[in-house]
Write a structure and sequence with these properties.
186 residues, alpha/beta, single chain
Length: 186
Amino acid sequence: MKVLVIFASHRIGGKNAEIEKAMCGYADSFEFDFVHLANCKIEGCTACNRCGESGYCVLPQSEGDRFQEIYEKMVSADAIFIISPVYAPIPSRLTAIFERLTSVLFNAGLINTDNNPLLNKKTAIFSYCSSGICDETPIKLIFDRFVMKNYRFDLSTYSYLNKSLYPKDEFNDITEYVIKTLEKLA
């Protein structure tokens, strides 16, 4: 099973390195593709609406912009894990990815159809901060916005792999939470 893991932190190492190392212990069962947004440039959407004609973002790629590459990885992955620290409430590069995904899927007429390549994709979204596991609901609600046919802004209705209502009460730390969710896929 091919698992795309997007680390949304603007920093390299630290908790991301710990989580990646723990996930690599499952390399016999999964093919991982780790994307560290700290190493990526993601331009913001310009609302040109031309993606509706092409089905992909036509924003002229600046040097290092990796949106299209990440989008294609999301489409081809069997599962997506998004692991994000809390940066008011989410990091800017992850926000830019979500913004451009919304435009591509909406303007291409895919967001409200069964042809949406991200609809029903096995997905887990995790959020953490210096005090441990954080509420991932804000990020899940934004992800719902560009994937779901019938989304809400007050309640996540997507069928995420990590469904714990109170993960802080169930897991010692974010690494354990990610690994226990990964094990559900095996």
